[in-house]
Amino acid sequence: MKKQKWIALLLAGGKGTRLNLLTKTLVKPAVPFGGKYRIIDFALSNCRNSGIESVGILTQYRPYELHAHLGRCSYWDNYNRYGGLTILPPYSRNDSGVEWYEGTAHAVFQNIEFIEQYEPDHVLVVSGDQIYKMDYSLMLEQHLETHADCTISVVEVPWAEATRFGLMKIDSKTFQITSFEEKPKNPTSNLASMGIYIFNWPILKEYLLREERKEFSHRDFGKDIIPSMLYDGLQLYAYCFDKYWKDVGTVHSYWKANLDLLTGEKNIFLQDPEWKIHTAYYNEPPLYFDERAKMHQSIVSEGCEIYGTVENSVLFSGVKVGKGSRIINAVILPQTIIGENVWIENAVVGSQAKIMDGVIIVSKNADAHLMVVGHKEIVDPAIQDFTGTNKVISVVS
């Protein structure tokens, strides 16, 4: 195997429980986004566009649909001869059975043999569940210039959301990290880790092995590896990112990130148009827009049939909206069928759902209550109560 300057490991195995019904049967990186993409397409495209030749994708929770999507990503197949994409699920090392990934650092530790075959100088570790465009090669340039042992990409987040992230303080002149806290209850900084790291591989390998020898460890980068490196006096630097970035870790943030696409200033696909986000190709028929249909400031994908009204919404491929129906401030995932005289407002509706005639799924205040329908669910008042307290519909506060 050819020696490589750097390789990437893409973490794509988390359950994503805060996405509620959307990840009940689907891993978060495989959740559809933006009308035609999957969330993982962003990190994966960033890797390719940054010139990274080899990417290991670490999967675990409900991986089937993610694996199927990656298998259709033919744009990567002819990109290079030296690695391409490798799917890295948990496996059995001995007779004791499969050794499941127990944390982000443990997942990388389990794949040391995969990494070593490339003899990399540096390893890029990225999360597969964020929406952004980034040239990782610029981050590597700073990493080399500062002689860092580890570089962490950071972004300022709203103080109200700061408890969701690993937070740090840095020297404003050198960008060296001086302190780090993983999801503190009382934040003293809103400078958040994006979960994007560049490590010098020999150093990271040493810390991974050391963590495995500990009697107790979360086996996590934010809770264990990064604090240990800081405590030991290693050189950790922040790479400050100031473009669009959204961690879609909650249903509200996922819903807002999709609706951001309806505003030109926030539409990530209109920013840096030469930096393409690639995805798998699905052969869908053209959009059909009936003469009775109405649409305002929305994204409607191929294969849709629209007979009703769509306002300020994102509709994925194959969605059908029946006569007299109104879809407002909603995200409707692929192949969902919406009957006639349906009213959906401030909601996310999962893939392949069926919303029968006359159903109303409405929240008048999305910030307080967002309606969520699960994948492949049937919402029919004739056969069930759908008050928002059962498995079919969830009200997310």
Shape: globular
The amount of helix comes to 10-25%
How many domains in all? 2
CATH superfamily of the largest domain: Spore Coat Polysaccharide Biosynthesis Protein SpsA, Chain A
- Based on helices, strands and strand pairing, what is the structural class? alpha/beta
Enzyme class: transferase
GO molecular function, one term: ATP binding
Keywords: ATP-binding, Carbohydrate metabolism, Glycogen biosynthesis, Glycogen metabolism, Nucleotide-binding, Nucleotidyltransferase, Transferase
Binding site for alpha-D-glucose 1-phosphate: 101, 166, 182-183, 193
Describe the fold and architecture.
- The protein is an alpha/beta fold and 397 residues long.
- The protein has helices at 40-49, 64-71, 104-109, 112-116, 136-145, 201-213, 221-231, 251-260; strands spanning 6-11, 32-33, 37-38, 54-58, 84-88, 122-127, 130-132, 150-156, 166-170, 177-182, 191-200, 236-240, 245-247, 288-289, 294-296, 299-300, 305-306, 309-311, 314-315, 320-321, 326-332, 337-338, 343-349, 354-355, 360-362, 370-373, 378-379, 393-396.
- The strands form six sheets. Strands 15, 16, 18, 19, 21, 23, 25, 26 and 28 form a nine-stranded mixed sheet that branches. Strands 5-4-1-6-11-8-12 form a seven-stranded mixed sheet.
- The longest helix is centred in the middle third of the chain and has 13 residues, at 201-213.
- It is globular.
- The N and C termini lie far apart (51 Å).
- 46% of the residues are buried.
- Residues 385-390 have low confidence and may be disordered.
